[in-house]
Amino acid sequence: MDTGDTTYRSANPASRPPSSGSREDTPLFTEIPYTPSRRTPPSGRPASSSGSSGPSRSGEWSSPYGGRPYSQPRSRSSAPSGETQRPQNRATPVYTELSWDDLRRGTDFNSIGRAPTPAAPPPPPEPERRSATPYFGGFEQERGSYFSSDQPYHTNGGQEKRREIRFVAPTRPAARQRAVRTGSAVPQPRTTAPRQNTRPTRPAAPSSGRTSTAGSRRSSRPSRGRGIPPLYLMGGFILLALVIFGLSRLGGNNTSPNTNRPVTPAVIGTAEPTDALPEDSLIAAESSPEATPDMTPTPSPEPSPTPSGPKAQQLGDLIVPADWGPVVPERRREVYDSYFDKSCMIGNSLVDGFFMWSGMTNIRYIYSTGATVGGAIGGLDLAPLTLNPNGYYTDIYLMFGLNEIGIDVNSFVQSYKKLVDFIREHQSSANIYIISVTPVIKRVDEDPNEAQSMERIRNFNAALKEFCVDQNCWYLDIYSMLLDDEGYLSEDYAFMEDGKHFEKSGYVAWANYMKTHYVDSGLLTE
Amino acid sequence: MKKTIALLLAILCLLTALCGCGGKKKQLEPETFVQELLSGAKFTDSLNQLDDPVVPLLYGVDTEDYSKAIVYCGTAATAEEIAVFVAVDDAAAERLLKAARERVDHQIEVYKSYGPAQAMTLENGIVDRTGNTVVVVICADGDNARKITDQYI
Predict the structure, then answer these.
(1) If we measure between CA atoms, which residue out of A274, A349, A354, A340 comes closest to residue A307?
(2) Interface subset of A 396-415, CB within 8 angstroms of B
(3) Which residues of A touch B44 (CB under 8 A)?
(4) β-pair partners for B66
(5) A339 touching B, CB under 8 A?
(6) If you placed Cys at A60, which of A158, A358, A384, B68 could pair as Cys (CB 3.0 to 4.6 Å)?
């Protein structure tokens, strides 16, 4: 060992952020004034003195803050043989940096930097080192590789020293230096060693021949625990978790009755109809556990009942139902009352009640108590339809059925067809809504003297749906909206005296339903 | 002279006493009148007050003809209703009274075939005027409704 050299073992350069400001704030080195006979105990010195002077200015090697980066070390062959690191200023005291482990283990400072001899005492038990230095295995390994070299470090030139410098220093030099000053065993933080630094720390290949007793001991030390970066450990845990998760999912699918079904996300299985489904149905499909198995594609030859394609299509000036059927779907946006400025509602006493209590006075109402669809033409004053120019109304609502529920359903539908034809003749571009026959309360349904029974009402509504498909009309399903849990007209809406008409709350609910169930050009793309 | 004064005082007292025998009419306040009807007469329908924009459309009247209108209607299941219009002048009161009668007549025609009982109720209904106030009362409990109304009209 060239005693005249000043050996710099800098801190791990990668552990310090390059933009961490002044290096005076982060002392990096433990400096030991060198004397040929005896090395004094270490004392702290700011890293700036060593980092900014000496090697970096000499050009022999560069610090991570200037000159050549550590990641591009000079090759050993290119280093001049016998090159030594000498300080620029010979008056500069000689320092030798010590690692924290050296201090903790009570390493003889005189032996620091010297090539170990076979007579070196055996290292302390490994568990102690692990507990004291939970992470800085890289340092141990690197130092082992360094000391395993047959060549004295000062004869390896600056290049060898650079490699050594990278891995000696702790990741937190300041804390470490405080520990050096106080001599206390400060728990060293567990930090992640940068990858670019762990690669050079690997022991030299056996073919290099630079082995020694100490080097063999350190090289033979298992690198697990210390050598494995936590990043790899975390990755391993994540991979293990993914494998376990995948196995559990695979096991869950195997327990389902459809074991032959491909493991496909539910969304993929219903990609086409999902785009057109209403938002609430999407939510229901996602939240319902029973719906999850049905969402997976099945090779069943039976056609899926879920419709596909657009909900509406353009037919001349009309927006008519498409594959989704004639039921007016719920729209994403609620419209204002002004949306119905060009609307007309024709019907019976329920229209009278709607007119009085819905709050939508802008609709043109044509109604009569006791009106029937068969008696609409001639019985109702349809002059607004005939006198206004064609195209004046954009939406026409028809509300019949309460007073003719006792007649034959086919007659009912035929009467509807006559009225629709009449409307199409005078207002050909208007969307025609056939409002469903409304339900009745349970007492009326069970009364044999009453013509209105829920069964007949359902039959009428089914016929109206088919009629809407045939006639390109829309079916406004307020029937379903008015039902209670038992399938009758809800008492929240019903006028209980007759069980057929609605209280004000029922008409308001009907109006709100219309504001969220309407047909316009936006339905063509939904 | 004294006899003459005493005779005049006696006649004045007699006239005053006779005026009291003619019956006392209440001053018709629309809100009070309607509430008294709702509480004193039995309506089969559940009546609620209509919003102001609906009133002229339902009765076919001009909003400039009245300064106040209180209309209570049912569920459209019955013909029961209460309407009180305070006309701005005598002519407006006549127009309002005419419109009210036309409505009731139309309702009678409608309910003759659909609900004869309601048609009877309509025929027994009250469509009257006191001063510039026009009153319509269609109630199944016609007798009580008439008693209450007679206190004002």
Answers:
(1) A274
(2) 403
(3) 497
(4) B87
(5) no
(6) A158
Closest B-chain CA to A500: B77
Selection from A387, A407, A505, A486 nearest residue A446 by Cα:
A486
Q: What's the CA gap between B69 and B84, in Å, rounded?
A: 6
d(CA A205, CA A194): 22
Structure tokens at A221: 């030390």
Cross-chain residue pair B113–A502, CB shorter than 8 Å: no
List the domain boundaries for chain A. Answer: 13-231, 262-308, 312-524
Q: Where are the beta strands (DSSP E) in A235-275?
A: none
Q: What is the rounded CA–CA span in Å between residue A112 and residue A442?
A: 99
Architecture in CATH for domain A312-524 = 3-Layer(aba) Sandwich (3.40)
Q: What is the pTM of this model?
A: 0.55
Using CB atoms, which residue from B46, B51, B76 is nearest to A349?
B76
**Contact in structure between A100 and A106 (CB atoms under 8 Å):** no
Return the residue of B nearest to A502 by Cα.
Answer: B75
Across A24-61, b (16+ Cβ under 10 Å) vs e yields: eebbbbbbbebeeeebeebebbbbbbbbbbbbbeeebb
Cα(A43)–Cα(A34) distance, rounded to whole angstroms?
Answer: 12
Q: Which residue has the tokens 């969307």?
A: A431
Residue A279: exposure state from Cβ atoms within 10 A (0-12, 13-18, ≥19): exposed
Give the residue from chain A lying closest to B50, CA to CA. Answer: A356
Provide the greatest CA pair distance for chain A: 128
- For A261, A269, A274, A302, A483, the CA distances from A299, given in Å and listed in that order, are 8, 11, 19, 9, 37
**Burial (0-12, 13-18, 19+ Cβ within 10 Å), A347:** buried
- Asked if A510 reaches chain B (Cβ–Cβ under 8 Å), the answer is no
Q: Are A398 and A435 within 8 A, CB to CB? A: yes
- Nearest C-alpha neighbor of B72 from the set B36, B26, B110: B36
Considering CB atoms only, which of A356, A359, A403 is closest to B76?
Answer: A356
H/E stretch holding A45 reads: strand A43-45
Nearest-neighbour CA in chain B from A431: distance (Å)? 25
Is ipTM over 0.90? no
CB hemisphere CA count around A378 (13 angstroms): 4
Helix (H) or strand (E) holding A433: strand A431-435
B127 forms beta bridges with B136
Listed in order, strand segments (DSSP E) in B24-150 are 48-49, 66-73, 81-87, 126-130, 133-138
Tens digit of pLDDT per residue, chain A (526 long)? 444 443 344 344 444 444 443 444 444 444 455 544 444 444 444 443 333 334 433 334 444 443 343 434 444 444 444 444 444 444 444 555 556 665 566 555 555 545 555 555 555 555 444 433 334 434 444 443 444 444 444 444 444 444 444 444 444 544 444 444 444 444 444 444 444 444 444 444 444 434 344 444 444 455 454 567 788 888 888 888 888 877 766 654 443 333 333 333 333 333 333 333 334 333 333 333 343 344 444 445 555 556 677 788 888 888 888 878 899 999 989 999 999 999 999 999 999 999 999 999 999 999 999 999 999 999 999 999 999 999 999 999 999 999 999 999 999 999 999 999 999 999 999 999 999 999 999 999 999 999 999 999 999 999 999 999 999 999 999 999 999 999 999 999 999 999 999 999 999 999 999 999 999 888 888 7
